Amino acid sequence: MAGHLQDKITVKSKVLPLDGRNFWHGRATDCQASTQSGTSFRSMTSPIEKVARCLYSLALSAGMLQQLILPLKAEPAELTQADKEVAGDFSSPFSIPFDGAPKGSVEIQVSINGEGPFNFLLDTGAERTVVYEEIAQKLRLPLSESGIKPLIVNGAGKNIVQIRRKAQVKKLEIGKASLKNVDLYILPVSSHSFSSTLSRIDGILGNDLLQRSVFQIDYESQKITFFQSRDCTQAVDPVGMPIFFLDKRKPSISAEIDGIPAQLEIDTGSFLSLELYPFFVETQNLLARYPRKIEQKVEGVNGIEIEQMVRAQKLKFGNIEVSKPLIYLATQGKKDTSSRSISGNIGNAVLSRFSVTFDYQCQRMSFVKNNSFDKPFNYVDLQLKFQLPKGVVTYAPLESPAGQAGIRVGDKITAIDGVPLGELGPKELYQKSRKPPGETLLITIERKNIQKDIQILLENAL
């Protein structure tokens, strides 16, 4: 069709207010083009087809897009009977801030039965909304095992964690949304601080509640906006792409990793850039394909597992290409039992380069690049470990950057970049350790009652 277009194409468009009916702003509301055959897009009977084809032809003729994915005729994600009994909705659009921990997790404040706030991780990789057992005990929630099929938690880590109890809470509040009769599943582990988030997590907001709304995560402004679900037949999204659902709940997309087709979950609960599961790693022979790798410990609800970090050349989904992302290759753990139709997941280290919109009802997502999109995926590893709060060094191999700079096991770190160690919290320490390559890190150590400043030039480890 693009070959028949002449130079003149007229597009009339307007930006519509953000609400549940016309969330996908910037759509073309009228479009016509002169062709050699004299055919006008106005002659098409379907308004959606007319606008979509016009946008497609315009994009090709202007060289603006490599690919435009047309809307799907998708069935809404199914609600269980328990989901249908939840009262309340997201009928009035509202925005709430979120705490973007240094590693990029999306943490929001939630109230339960009027108490709180509690710190919940917004996790599109979680099927159900859960609360940690000690929080349930603190709130004296009535726990029940009847009518619940044991759920296997499929988070990071190699341990098997099962959920066998739940509690129905009278009211759960997220910003202006007040939901009633909500089932919270009880995670049988203690609430604690993960090294992946560096903050205390009290619960996880999963897809059983997230699917009730259209929501946009603006990583740059650290803001989440919730909208009412819309009529899928009334909007065309020229920058979006279709999603499908693993287990009817987890949003997933089709992608390519260095030309290899992959089906990837969108996981806002992961701080990684891209994680690939054992079956996919093995069948695609990825350990041999990427010989240069660094062993990493990845922590999650299920404990700790060892993965291999490598650097790919390109991650592509829709018309978006992400350059040289870091990839974590899982080779062990409970992910061996996960669905083999899913290759892995895209986490916040990639997602944070966009403003991302999720529309479960219409099975579409939108990715709009922000100012972080072109930033390189750096990984600086001093291979230095020390105890807090005293700062005693417990790990600094001689061949490591820290060891080569002169730091030894038993040294006491007293300051970093001139700031006393006691004045640096976990988040500040993480930010110091993740300064970009080319910068220097000044570490003050004490050895045999003598203080010494050691300056380390930071370099990419991969």
TrEMBL record:
Gene3D superfamilies: 2.30.42.10, Acid Proteases (2.40.70.10)
Domain Peptidase A2: 118-157
SMART domains named in the record: PDZ
Pfam families per the UniProt record, alphabetical: Asp_protease_2, PDZ_6
GO MF annotation: an example: aspartic-type endopeptidase activity
InterPro entries named among the record's database cross-references: Aspartic_peptidase_AS, PDZ, PDZ_6, PDZ_sf, Peptidase_A2_cat, Peptidase_aspartic_dom_sf, Retropepsin-like_bacterial
BP term (GO), one: proteolysis
Keywords, alphabetical: Hydrolase, Protease
Parts of the chain that traverse the membrane: none
Domain of life: Bacteria
Name by which UniProt lists this protein: Carboxyl-terminal processing protease,Provisional
Native organism: Gloeobacter kilaueensis (strain ATCC BAA-2537 / CCAP 1431/1 / ULC 316 / JS1)
